Structure formats: structure tokens, C-alpha cells
Amino acid sequence: MNVLRRLGFELVDGPEIDAPYYNFDALNIPEHHPARDMQDTFWVTGGLLLRSHTTTVQARVLESKPDLPIRIASAGRVYRNEAVDATHLAMFHQFEGLWVDKGLTFANLKGLLSFIAKSLYGEGRIRFKPKFYPYTEPSVGVDLACALCDAAGCEACHGAGWVTILGAGMVHPKVFLEFGYDPEEVSGIAFGLGTTRMAAQWAGVSKVKSLYDQELAVLHDLHRPPAGGEL
Amino acid sequence: MKINADTLRRFIEIPEDGRATRMLLDDIGIEVKRHDTSTNKFTLELLANRGDHHCYVGIAREISGRTGAPTCRPAYTKLQAGASPVALALNTDLCSRYSATLLEKTGESTPLSEAELAPLDAAEIHSVSAAVDATNLSNLEFGQPTHCFDADTISGPIQIRLSKEGEKAWPLFAEEKVLVPTGSIVIADDEKILAIAGVIGCEESKTTDATQRIILESAAFDPIAVRKASRSLGIHTDSSARFERGSDPSQVLVGAGRVVHLLEEHGWSRTGDTGMVGDWTDEKRKISIRTEAASTFLDHPLDDDEITDRLGRYGFAVEGSSGDLVAQVPPHRIWDVEFTADLYEELAKSIGYNDTATNLPPVDMGALPSHGDQAKRQVEEVLVGAGFYEVFTNGFHATSLREKLGIQEGHALWNHVETTNALDRGYGLVKNNALGQAVEAIAGNIRVGTRPIQMYEWTRTFHPDAEAPNQVCTERHVLWAIAEGNIETDRWSDQSRTASPWFFKGIVEEISTALRVPLAISPADANHSLHDCLHPGRQASIQLHGQTVGILGEIHPGICAAFKLKRARPVYMEIDREALLQTLAPARYQERSAHQPILRSLAFSLPPRVQAQDVIDILKANGPEWLEAVDIVDLFHHEEDGIAKRAVTFALRYGNNEGDRSADSVNQTSEALISAVIESLGPQGVALRA
Question: Among partner residues B363, B445, B470, which is closest to A48 by beta-carbon distance?
Fold first, then answer.
């Protein structure tokens, strides 16, 4: 958040139990679309759901129609109805941002993502790649060169050479239309970081579940690693 | 999807080096999850909106869009729609095209060659028979699912219709017939269901070694209908994966033609024309794109010819001139290309996401942390400074946790918001308190021998509330902390102390001081929902402006027993976040007066049941506005007539900013205050000490 504040972003909160409209329909994820499979959802009584991403906050902000430019970030818990194991959790954390204004471009999207990546990870090499997110078009993934092999491919990065750190894109015209914006007039940049995965990468933890186990011996070592030792 | 690089090379030129191919595929959005260098096999993660990527032709086209290299297609028989070899009855508009081609065994049926089967081998699809292998191959190559029926098992016309209520089918590989979801598209004859359309064929019409005549099906089914049927039946096939993402209706005869071509080379012959029903026509969707706008959006110089060329590589036909162009969407992209932004994405991919410009947009100025952000950080500084670790618990409760907490029906914490589809039974209830998980965390740490334990969390609890705006629940934001054991062991003085309610009282006071929020510790509030979960004699409420905003105290011995906490006495604290992060008027510096304030001391004798705070409240309420502060400066325990009493001395600070306050006026004010205290509390035994 400190990085984004430099660009004028403010933190906004939203409910964790929300209507499917804000989690799916308003974000161009209609019922029965394969994209709904990307986020197995916890449904709760009353036809509501536990949000599967913090993008619900973006939807609510757009609905409130604040003055332009909109520069907001949201962070918090999200839920996925998955079988829990060492690397999959029913709850984890996300961090997302939204910038809406007149005249934002794909080049601006890349510029913002580069700024965020370099602010968080230093001067490591990054690359952009096409992705699909229902609420953005075009959509972008940002990879960071593996710190161990510098993109050559090694065991640690499973030969990929790159580690995905960000997902982003230009706000989809359908999302703008849903909330009464003219996509010919305004454009937007949306981006998200998997803070759980980032924290695990930072700490050198391969199994994210250990970050959520409330085991103080582990947390102690994460904060104050034993001299010369690795987790 | 798994593909073989050598096979892909038959469709388009790709780098010889496997790593370079991997980089190329990543670059166009076909992400390589694994590259087996020994077999040159790539495991791909395909984009959810790109059904057309589920085949070699589609992948080759995507590569061509980036590299400009020409693409090749495998040989296929050009089928003509004509007189159908079998009667077809299309009775649903959820199938836009359905074709049937009759093939007969006219020679020795030979299996497909090893080279022909290479794509199947890479995709880890087992070889079954020439007919089945040919359909699988056609799907992998062209992305058009097809299916073979044994023609001699079909009685009457082939009907493409919706399933009726209670209708059953016998899907391939199933042990028995299953109920078909009502309204699913099915292929049926007069007696039975031949296939769940787009999902799977059925046992009763499958081809076998004895099959002499085949009806080859190739069709375009509605994506949502296929998806619903697949999910309802729990049957997921390559065919359903393709149809769910939207198939290309223009490929119906091409896909069938590829199967016919393969089978004709392996002992089968086509008989007659191909029957075709369905009203699909290419809608020729058109999207306008302005050259200047595209150049600006990508910050990349483009002209009409370049846009035409680049979009053409993906199959878009572009018309127009002078910067005003119109692109016609090809049939394989009708499901995902609708806006000009979609065309921008195609151009960006063609140029290369890493080869377009990168510009941070100009910003006017940054933003400061909000008061809430700052307050949260200050609270964390207090807690971390006192030795607490931040932890994260999930948002659920198992029903067993409710029992461990001793929550009975009718208790404020009995009702929960419930999940309706949790895969794990432990996630059946959405949590309505944080204490249960806090005690669980204590128990978990003690089990592994970790002590002392100090942890905190900012979390939410969820409370059923039909009156809430969402008519289901309200969300309460809380800060909780728990401690157990000998804490503060790392102090320089080597003096530790045991976690207790007094320790948390100190924490609350530190938070109060840090935030300038006047939190007060008061006697227990029986209305707090956690009141019954804490030791009845070792708890207190946390108040703000007379309202309960939190609770602290020792965990109830019964709960400790339920969690098998022997010889452990955890202490818990919880405060509403809103109370901590409330916006305060900004602190402002006030010029100090050159005149000293006037101080007076008043000593009262208080019986046990009267609190010193009660006296302070009366003094402040009755004092003039220039009574700046009332502080306790001395406490003395004594007995009067055998009754234990406290002598409490209060220091009163009277402002004298202008230097015009006389001693007489101050003394008169003090006398009035003494009278007010005695009048209010005298009947309870409060008296002025000489």
C-alpha cells in the first residue's frame, strides 16, 4: 500500500459475505461461464457467498460512481471451496487495485505494473504475458525472473524460469457498461497480487498453509530465522 | 492440454530449441506448465475463454499471429451436405448444426499408424480402435469433437432433442443407466438415448470390433447446455471441455472430413452424402477499429496495412481505409470477441506484450495513510512491542467448536451463517466469534511445546441478521489477542510475568494512550456475547464513552477443560475495530500560558463499593470549564470503625491562562465541588478527609 500511496491510491474495504452479483455477474462472469470454475465458491444461506476475490470491492466502488480519477486498493481475505492441503487453502489473502480515468492506455497499464513490480522486487527482470480474466480486456500476467536462475530454468522454478507475481488488465467494457460508464469515454486499469503467495515467496515457505497455522515457533523463525539456517 | 512439439511442427514452424518454443508459447498466452525434454512434450495451461486453443490448428494460428509464419492443416475429405444417409430430426435450437455421415467397412480395418497416433500419445489418450482414434485425433487437430455410432444399433431416425423428465441413458464406461438431467441435449433414436450431446456417447450404440457400419456425428452444441449436463452428470470429457468454451460451427464438416479421411485410409468407405440439419449461418460480426486510437492505446505506431495484416493472421477479415477499419470476427472467435478492446488485445499479442511501450501515467500527487491505517499501525506497534505475533485464522467454525465453547441453543453465539456447499465438514459454519479459534491456537501451540504464547489478529465475525442490508448477516470487525504462560521473558531485567487480565489491562491502556482514544476498563458486562466464555470472576469489559466495545479476561475453566488445556490459563482480549480506528479531531498545539495553573488537592475517604472514577466524574461534571484536569495522586488504605476504606487524594488543576484567577475564586470553586461530591456520594459513605 505504501507503494501505491505514492500514486494517490487509497485503501477501501468491503464485505466478505457478498451477493453473487458483485462477485460474478457485475464482473462479466455470467452463470454457467467456465470462468466461474476458476474460483470454486463457498455459498452461504440466503443465496450469498463468501467472496472468492477482492474484486467485489472494485465493483462496489464503480457502482458508487465517485469522481474521476478513481484510485483505490482493497486487501483482505478471500475464500475458495477447495480441498485443503499444504498448498491450497480455503481462505487466503489478496490485494487489488483499480485506477479509472479518461485516457488510460495499455502502455499505462504496463507502466503501472512495472512500477509496482520494481518497487516490491527491485530491479529483477519482469515479463508480460497474455492472460484471461473475465473483468479485464486485454488481460496481462506479470512474471518475475526466477531469483535463482535468472529465467534460465531451474529446479526451484520447475524449469519455467519465471514466477507469476501479478494479474492485471484494462477494465472490460462490459464492466463499465454495467455500472453506467461509457467505455469510449473512460478506461481503467485493474490489478491484483496474491499476497499469500508473495508472503510465502518472501519467507521462502513452500507450503503456504504454514502461514495460516498459528504455530508461533514457525512464525518466530519467519521473523527471526535461525543463524545460517533456512526454513 | 498436452501436445508434442514435433507434431506441432507439422502445423507451423516453431523454434528447434525446446526452451525457445516454451518462451514463444508463454509469450502468446499459452502457458507452459511443464516441458518434458526427453519426449519434447509440453503440458499447457489454456485460457478459460479460448476454446479454439484446444487443438493444434488453434495453437498454430495463435503462433502465426505472433510470428507471421504460415500454418498447415492435416488432410481432410471435403464433405458436402446432401441427402442424409439416416433420417435426422432436430428438435431443439440448442444445436445449431448437426451432421451425420455413413461409413462402411469395405476392407480390412487397420489401426492408425504410430505417426498418426502421436498426438494422442502426447495427450495421453489411449488407442481404442481406428474409428474412436480417428475422432479423438480430429478433435486434437481441428478442435471439432465428433462421435461414431454403430449404425446397426440405431432404430428409426436420429433425433436431436432435449431430455424428458425421468429419462435414463447409459453413458460409456458407466456400470448402469443414469438419470439424465431434464432439458439436456440428447441424441436419441426411437428406443434409447444414443449420446448426451457434446459430453459422451452411450454403451448401447458404441462401436466395437464387430461394427460394420458407422454413423459419424459432427455438430455444434450450445456451450451452456453442454456445461450443465456435464456438471450434473459429473462427466467431463475432451469433447465437453471443447463445447463448453464454444465450438466453431464452421468446422463441423471439416472435423468430420478429417475422420472420414483417416478412416478411408484404414479400411472404411463413405456411403452417400453427409446429412446436415441446423440453421447456423455465419453472422459475420463486425467491429470497428480506428487506427489512431489503436496506436494511442498501445503506444505503438500502427497503420491500416499493419492492422489488417496482424488481425488477418488470427482470421479476422479487415476492411476500410484512412484509419477507419472494420474487422469481421471469424467463426472460431464468435464466443470471445465482441468489443474493440478485444481487437486491441489481438494487436498487442501480435506485436508482443513485451514489445509495446511502457509508460507510467502522470499523477498529480500521492496520498497519505488514512487515520484508520495509521491507527491500525499504532495498535500493532503496541502489540508487537509487547511480544505478540500476528496470526491468521480462517472464517469458519466446525459445529464441534460450538460444543467446546459450551454454547447452548438460545445463546447469542448459537446461530451462525451456514455454508451450503462446503467440501470440508469443518467449514460448515461461518464463524460468529474469534475466541474459539484463539483457544484452538493456544491448544495447538501447547501440544507442540511452544510457550509462552502471545498472538493477535484483525478479523471479522459474522452474525445472522435478517434486518441487515443483505438480509443475511452483519460483519463485525474485531481485534483479538490471547496470551498464555510466562510472558516478557526477553526483558533485560530477566523478570517475566504470567499472562493475566492485568497484563491485558495494561495493553488496553497502552493502546488507549497511543490512539488518544479514552478506553476504560470497567466491571464485566453480562450482555457481551463472550461473557459466558470467560472466567466469571476474572474478566472486565472495555468501554468507550460508557459503551462496551470489548472484553478481556481469563478463558473459562470449562472451555480450557474442553480443549484439554491442563495447567494453562489463557487470557483473551477483544475490541471492536471501529472503536479503535474512529476518526478523532486532529490534535492541535496550543500556545502555553506564561501563568502557572493553580493546583488544589482534595482527599476523600471511600468505602469499598465506591470507585474513585465516580468521584472524578462528579468533580468534572460540576467543575467550571477552566478545571483542566483531575488526577489521582495518592491512595491510602485504612480502617474506620472496623470498615476497610481508601483515602484517595485527587489533584485538581485550574487553568489560569490570563493570570487573573484569584485564590479566593479557586477556593470557592473547590468548596462547591466538595459539596457536590458529598451530596452525591455522602449517603454511600464518602467523606472529605481533613
Answer: B470
* Chain B residues within an 8 Å CB radius of A91: 394-396
CA distance A66 to chain B (A): 17
Supply the pLDDT for residue B490.
67
In degrees rounded to 5, what are phi and psi of residue B281? Answer: -135, 145
Q: How far is A105 from chain B (nearest CA, A)?
A: 5
Work out the minimum CA distance from A102 to partner chain B, whole angstroms.
Answer: 11
Strands B324-328 and B286-290 turn out to be antiparallel
Quick: pLDDT tens for B487-501: 876 667 767 788 999
CATH code reported for the domain at B2-67: 3.30.56.10
Q: Domain spanning B371-580: which CATH class is it, in words?
A: alpha beta
Residue B105 CB neighbours (<10 A): 18
Q: What is the pTM of this model?
A: 0.85
Interface test with chain B among A1, A6, A17, by most B beta carbons within 10 Å: A17
Domains and CATH numbers, chain A: 2-193 (3.30.930.10)
Top-level class of domain B88-277: alpha beta
On whether the CB atoms of residues B527 and B519 are closer than 8 A, the answer is no
Whether chain B has a CB inside 8 Å of the CB on A221: the answer is no
Query: For B350-373, how does the pLDDT look when each residue is reduced to its tens digit (9 = 90+)?
Result: 999 999 999 998 887 788 888 888
Do A5 and B369 lie within an 8 Å CB cutoff?
Answer: yes
Q: Which of A73, A29, A13, A12 is nearest to A174 (CA)?
A: A29
Say if CB B300 and CB B114 are below 8 A apart: no
